[in-house]
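From: lab user (bench 3)
To: helpdesk
Subject: output format question, protein + nicotinamide-adenine-dinucleotide

Hello, I'm new to running complex predictions and I'm not sure whether the block I got back is the full result or only part of it. Here's what I submitted:
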Amino acid sequence: MLQVGINGYGTIGKRVADAVAAQPDMEVCGVSKASPDFGADGAVRRGYTLYSAREDRVSAFRKAGYEVAGTSEDLIAESDIVVDATPGGIGAENRPRYEAAGTPAILQGKESDSLVDTSFNARANFEDAEGAEYVRVVSCNTTGISRLVSPLEEAYGVEKVRATLVRRGGDPDQTGRGPINDILPDPITVPSHHGPDVNTIFPDLSIDTMGLTVPTTLMHMHSLNIELESEPSSEEVRELLAGESRIFVVDDGLAIDGTGKLRELARDRGRPRGDLWENCVWGESINVQDSELYLFQAIHQESDVIPENVDAIRAMTGLAGRDESMAMTNESLGIGL
Amino acid sequence: MLQVGINGYGTIGKRVADAVAAQPDMEVCGVSKASPDFGADGAVRRGYTLYSAREDRVSAFRKAGYEVAGTSEDLIAESDIVVDATPGGIGAENRPRYEAAGTPAILQGKESDSLVDTSFNARANFEDAEGAEYVRVVSCNTTGISRLVSPLEEAYGVEKVRATLVRRGGDPDQTGRGPINDILPDPITVPSHHGPDVNTIFPDLSIDTMGLTVPTTLMHMHSLNIELESEPSSEEVRELLAGESRIFVVDDGLAIDGTGKLRELARDRGRPRGDLWENCVWGESINVQDSELYLFQAIHQESDVIPENVDAIRAMTGLAGRDESMAMTNESLGIGL
Amino acid sequence: MLQVGINGYGTIGKRVADAVAAQPDMEVCGVSKASPDFGADGAVRRGYTLYSAREDRVSAFRKAGYEVAGTSEDLIAESDIVVDATPGGIGAENRPRYEAAGTPAILQGKESDSLVDTSFNARANFEDAEGAEYVRVVSCNTTGISRLVSPLEEAYGVEKVRATLVRRGGDPDQTGRGPINDILPDPITVPSHHGPDVNTIFPDLSIDTMGLTVPTTLMHMHSLNIELESEPSSEEVRELLAGESRIFVVDDGLAIDGTGKLRELARDRGRPRGDLWENCVWGESINVQDSELYLFQAIHQESDVIPENVDAIRAMTGLAGRDESMAMTNESLGIGL
Amino acid sequence: MLQVGINGYGTIGKRVADAVAAQPDMEVCGVSKASPDFGADGAVRRGYTLYSAREDRVSAFRKAGYEVAGTSEDLIAESDIVVDATPGGIGAENRPRYEAAGTPAILQGKESDSLVDTSFNARANFEDAEGAEYVRVVSCNTTGISRLVSPLEEAYGVEKVRATLVRRGGDPDQTGRGPINDILPDPITVPSHHGPDVNTIFPDLSIDTMGLTVPTTLMHMHSLNIELESEPSSEEVRELLAGESRIFVVDDGLAIDGTGKLRELARDRGRPRGDLWENCVWGESINVQDSELYLFQAIHQESDVIPENVDAIRAMTGLAGRDESMAMTNESLGIGL
Ligand SMILES: NC(=O)c1ccc[n+]([C@@H]2O[C@H](COP(=O)([O-])OP(=O)(O)OC[C@H]3O[C@@H](n4cnc5c(N)ncnc54)[C@H](O)[C@@H]3O)[C@@H](O)[C@H]2O)c1
Ligand SMILES: NC(=O)c1ccc[n+]([C@@H]2O[C@H](COP(=O)([O-])OP(=O)(O)OC[C@H]3O[C@@H](n4cnc5c(N)ncnc54)[C@H](O)[C@@H]3O)[C@@H](O)[C@H]2O)c1
Ligand SMILES: NC(=O)c1ccc[n+]([C@@H]2O[C@H](COP(=O)([O-])OP(=O)(O)OC[C@H]3O[C@@H](n4cnc5c(N)ncnc54)[C@H](O)[C@@H]3O)[C@@H](O)[C@H]2O)c1
Ligand SMILES: NC(=O)c1ccc[n+]([C@@H]2O[C@H](COP(=O)([O-])OP(=O)(O)OC[C@H]3O[C@@H](n4cnc5c(N)ncnc54)[C@H](O)[C@@H]3O)[C@@H](O)[C@H]2O)c1
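Helpdesk reply: Thanks, we reran it on our side. This is the complete output you should expect:
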């Protein structure tokens, strides 16, 4: 059984841990956290062995009543592979530690592509990660775009993507993040860094992105314009996307008017944490005029990269090929709405 | 097996349905909805028999692909007891229908106390509902206050309650509700109607309440001042409350700074829909000075009344007494954090 | 002196009244309101003669201590021209009244273009309104787009406009509007109705728009992609826009990161009500790649249409031609940042 | 003419500068800022001489096109008195500089009472600041409570104050502040530090405060319970408060339901920056039961301390006594709604 260590047990890390634990071919050998707050409590309750990010915090964990099996260094040593889900920038700091320990590692979207052998999206470039030692699962927004571009590129060819990314200000538990009553061009410069990030997956794609930040916590929203190389009907595109396992085409009859009702649907379906691993594309919004496709999609920032991390583990370790891995991940998590 | 009909399958109704389904001594004989949106889809997926609120909507349900077993009238006829979770005011309209069918019914907090034999909170006045035909489970806020006052009254006597209720503007899926960037005295007049509502449970309690509405969706927050008849220490009160099955005393070490992290804790614990059936009282906030107790508690408006509805069913039908019923409900739902 | 009646004294009406009062060639002969709230108080303090929208409300105004000079019918009769700033849909109802009284009238953006001789934006089609009896000042969003397209069309030719309109949920005093924590595709269908609305000003323009609504109150934000017929440099476009009197190109050095700081700038400049009559285009965001121009602009929904209403009055009544009117309006209000 | 230096030209500093400039007996000799953003632009446009907070930033100001007359040290040397409106904590760092220069100074609410001769509220303890060298104008919340307690104490005697302070998360231009969708007990411990702060003005007052933070930007809201030593009627209290120059009793007929409409009223009245220097007490909320007074008041955090700073200057320098000073400040600013 492949032993997977989770270094950084926050929004992303705790979900990766649960997803790994749900797989038949791997298990969580431990999770590492920086402080003994309610997240630590949650880890223990789920039965994960707890490690302290830093040596000098071990006593704080013990004082708070948590047993810790060691530090992140220890976790790295004991793992066959590590998923690093520490805050942006810490992954880069951790990179030499993985190297020193000879442990392959997956970094997350905020880290630089230059630190890894390849950036990764299961649907788009699983093969590039096969056998790689260091892989970066691209950010929630880039994952969302990649899943959409992949089938469109294959079916029709993509001339150009123009995207406005309306991003949530913070996750539901991130008290300190704003804005409260504002719309921010973020970054102000156009095109934003998101386009080049997509190019780490599709090097030749012509894509321009504009970023905004708004005072919400539930999901990002993408307003998309995609010039295709051929002229499918809106209906054909809708069917193509509905055929993708990690895209949920929202049916008109559901009367879902935004991200609040989408997350409510996930709660109704009994999804763990109310997660929506799939891109949520409003069927009604899909519109092809001449060869230009328009659509809205909502992206659950907390969870869409989770299945990608699981698949990246399989790609790197050779546990399975793309289709088999995606199918196993989908099946075990219950992906598909 | 007691057949429970759920008339009105929205925020409250769908949770009551799931809670009833989880009990060993009752089952959901059907749920009724006004329109065939994603809520209907959820009901069907959970295996509940669907009824249309109105005859003239049956075709709309059928057109949307849903089988309906009849109208609310039919559901009422087939149920041993009905939980009415329709929007405020509709319960009053439905009241004669229950009478005509001879079906006992539970109304929710927005309906008038004058429509029922008794208002209800399991901890405070279970006995009053025993054998009653019409019972009203008090509102989320009144439920939250009742659970707190009950043990305090028993242990120390309560001289007076002064409460500021800072209420969420809407539930997460209520797109149309505001405010967006405002704090509203709601109502402007003081004391608010909430105090008299608490008096439907504790007729002799001296209580003054002030209501505010703010732009959030997660939970209400109560800022409480309670004059006691004796002078327990803060620590004693903390232990008393920690001993209540439907009160969760938030431990300081968890580092939970507000409603966002509370709901995150619920998600971490794998709670269905991330629900928090318990009053959440910050342990650190509990402070007794002379005989005045201060504390903050957060109330999950979508879910705290759910166990109360289940217990009301048992009280009315005689399935069990207070302690047995509360224990069964707690056990089956997993109440207690 | 031209006598201007303001029918509907709310967000738009009160600003139009103040703007008219600031002109040398026209004056406010009265304002009409539906209810005697703090808006009525404001009207009286500014010295405007008050009229009651409906006969049966006159007594309510009197009871509240306000003198009313009559009803909207009376105001219409006494005005040389009326600016109708009633809520969307009421303008259509009022249309026959203006006709009956022989009083020319200006309707606002929510009313249908089919009710008027022409839709109007001063910069783009002042001439079309010259001598017209019924004119519609287009909505805040359409006004914002028209001001931008006009100079671009003249200087470079416009091939196609693609716009994502991220709209504020409500004005600061609209307590009842949401959403609270949501991003809504609004409408879900793409392209939205905004494009055709722009076509009432530029009939031949190719434009696709996508609408979203977010929980803010300060300004709308437009994320724009404009294909030009020639290839100016980013710097040239920036200079072109900076030369427009009703466009404010936000300088990088000001360190303005969103709509909050923009409105703060307006407050710092002593603007009445903190209004921003100008489109606010972030200079740093202006980017031309090949012949595609990208930029972000913020639109103050409460005030950008105000100078347009004043200019429409002059166009309809022949008080002045386009350049003279716009100059007078700009000068008297202090437009230009 | 008294030369007043403003050290720290942000939310509070820019308003103090404008207020000082509006007085007949003092003038602004300069304002100091840390960085050359749009605030610097505003200072220059209003004709204030600009100083750089730090020597090593002078060149940044010059590069951005601003003339600076020197550093904060220079400003302190040239001022007869300085109003320090730097961010919390910097005032304490600046304190020795004022001492070294022999320049009296006013600090703001976030600084410690121990740094000054007295804390200050014009209505409550003007006399304590007469002739003092270092004075602290208490925070926006404490100012709001002091203005209310003062007349109540004089007229009826105050037994005890219990206050829940529902605070705005950030000012409108503070992009980085949250929360977005949360209600935070802040601090979690009860009573909060606000009570002791009020005791710097009323040493013997019995007061307990509870603090909350919510996602709004416009005003704080106080939910108050005040035990009086006698039993006035609600009407008497209303008249008492209406007689206070810095309290605005909101009339029921105005139909003002919250902070959004209050600020709209200020905009309607032509207030600079839409400021509300007065406590805003809802008349309808004033309720005395036995000897307990309840009421809601809204406090405009950006502006209520401004007149207090002006009065503190006069108290310290002997320019005028309490009544004369308050009258001059009120008259020059236009206080009183
Ligand atoms: N939250 C999102 O929306 C989102 C989406 C996609 C990708 N990501 C990326 O995932 C990564 C993690 O983000 P997150 O939102 O989960 O962060 P988070 O702050 O929720 O969690 C970070 C976790 O790392 C722990 N940690 C901090 N320093 C550590 C260290 N030195 N060693 C080990 N653990 C440490 C913290 O205790 C915490 O448990 C980031 O790169 C982020 O960009 C986040
Ligand atoms: N949401 C809360 O926070 C909350 C908390 C406690 C109590 N309550 C009370 O519970 C009741 C229900 O509130 P909710 O929030 O669940 O409302 P909701 O709007 O979420 O759900 C109401 C449901 O009733 C259905 N319905 C409407 N008219 C109907 C009719 N005539 N017959 C049958 N069904 C009909 C709707 O289709 C919907 O499914 C109200 O009395 C409310 O005051 C709500
Ligand atoms: N608020 C904006 O952001 C905005 C921007 C551009 C255009 N508009 C358009 O301007 C128009 C007015 O919008 P608003 O935001 O000013 O609305 P509002 O609700 O703020 O004001 C409407 C006013 O009309 C009065 N009124 C209502 N019925 C009336 C009647 N029958 N006769 C006379 N007066 C009546 C009301 O008392 C109120 O004073 C709408 O068409 C709207 O679409 C609004
Ligand atoms: N904003 C409020 O709601 C509010 C209300 C009452 C009291 N206060 C208090 O007023 C003080 C100022 O708060 P604010 O909101 O105006 O802050 P702010 O951040 O808006 O402004 C602070 C200003 O000080 C300048 N500055 C920073 N460091 C400096 C230094 N070393 N020397 C000189 N200038 C420096 C900054 O450039 C900025 O112009 C704080 O003590 C705060 O607690 C604020």
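A quick orientation on your result: Chain B is about 35% helix and 25% strand. Let us know if anything else is unclear.
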